[in-house]
Design brief:
15-stranded antiparallel sheet; mainly beta; 15 strands; 344 residues; Porin; 1% helix
Length: 344
């Protein structure tokens, strides 16, 4: 079986509809609907949450000194594991991603749960419990269990032209045969049909160019993200380590991910930028097969307004160590991508 032939053309445009509603003083609701995505051409709901910053709906000023430093989020929502998900493209929401694609191991999931935050003079602390499910159901209670997420960090909030942020996060699934941390995105990747076999379709093969390590049972993942910005120069880094196994495996396996982005923003209000990203994933497949995937990105962008972004990217990705029977063995892809983003 060979690779599907791909060429130059336009991909399906994607669209989101966001509803952000102030329900009460200090109480907000967010709902995101994918109107068009690679995986689903029809609309479907990604998720949503209620955010509570004040408890005045109980009584005015109730626990105000505590709530000045706290936040509560409850819903079926994008879970706050790591900082990379703030910079990834979420279907049509691509304004905060300097590049076209996301990371190779794309840590993203939506689960039902609650997050509690504490903020104080740059300190960030978050604890979360979710039900560990991507697709909600009351069936199979014995093969699912709660997931626990925690984040601790510091953000100096751009004092004297320098901003420094450092966070560490952990995601742990207590008992699950279906952890979806690296396969939960249903919107799809930007690299349509790369490294896919003949007969592949954009909807069915919506994760082209990404890598799912198959870590689905009793998953523990750590992510560390440093961010440094001085003037127009910006660095964002990712180190991630995930340990787990597939349900039938007797022993755990580990995958590591490394990524670094260096961006230079210039022009009026930093409305232009150029930058590069390096991304490496390595680890052990089932049966002890050691593999690695490397990706290089070069990108440039122009914010025509604060809501309109045009970006151009060159991407080069290579696969090493895969079995001879695996279509990815010794493979790779490269090319140019142009993307236009409108967000308001």
């Amino acid at each position: 079986m060979g690779l599907i032939e791909i060429g130059n053309n336009f991909n399906l445009p994607t669209a989101n509809l966001d509803l952000d509603v102030e329900l009460y003083d200090g109480v907000r609701m967010h709902l995101r609907t994918y109107l068009s995505s690679r995986h689903h051409p029809e609309p479907y709901v990604k998720g949503g949450y209620i955010q509570i910053d004040k408890l005045d709906f109980i009584s005015e000023g109730f626990m105000q000194p505590l709530m000045n430093n706290m936040r509560i989020k409850i819903g079926h929502m994008e879970n706050n594991y790591g900082d990379m998900h703030f910079r990834r493209s979420d279907n049509a929401m691509a304004l905060y991603n300097p590049f076209v694609g996301n990371l190779i191991m794309d840590a993203f999931t939506t689960e039902v749960g609650a997050e509690v935050y504490y903020f104080n003079n740059g300190l960030i602390a978050m604890g979360s419990v979710t039900n560990g499910k991507l697709n909600q159901a009351v069936s199979n209670p014995d093969v699912t269990g709660p997931s626990y997420i925690a984040k601790l960090g510091y953000d100096n909030n751009a004092e004297e032209g320098l901003r420094f942020r450092l966070t560490g996060s952990v995601y742990h699934t207590n008992k699950s045969a279906n952890a979806y941390l690296y396969s939960a995105d249903r919107a799809g990747s930007r690299y349509y049909l790369v490294m896919e076999a003949t007969g592949a379709t954009p909807a069915a093969n919506f994760s082209s160019g990404r890598f799912n390590p198959g870590l689905r049972n009793e998953l523990t993942a750590f992510m560390v993200n440093p961010f440094l910005k001085y003037g127009g120069l910006e660095f964002f880094g990712t180190y991630e380590r995930a340990t787990s196994k597939a349900t039938a495996e007797p022993d755990t396996r580990t995958f590591n991910q490394y990524a670094g982005e260096l961006i230079y923003r210039f022009g009026n209000n930093e409305n232009f930028y150029v930058g590069g990203r390096y991304n490496l994933v390595d680890g052990e497949l089932t049966a002890g097969k050691e593999v690695d995937i490397t990706r290089y990105n070069l990108a440039g962008g122009w914010f025509m307004t604060k809501n309109i972004l045009a970006k151009l990217e060159y991407v080069n990705q290579e696969y090493n160590g895969f079995a001879n029977t695996d279509i990815r063995n010794g493979g790779g892809f490269n090319g140019l991508m142009f993307e236009a983003v409108i967000s308001f």
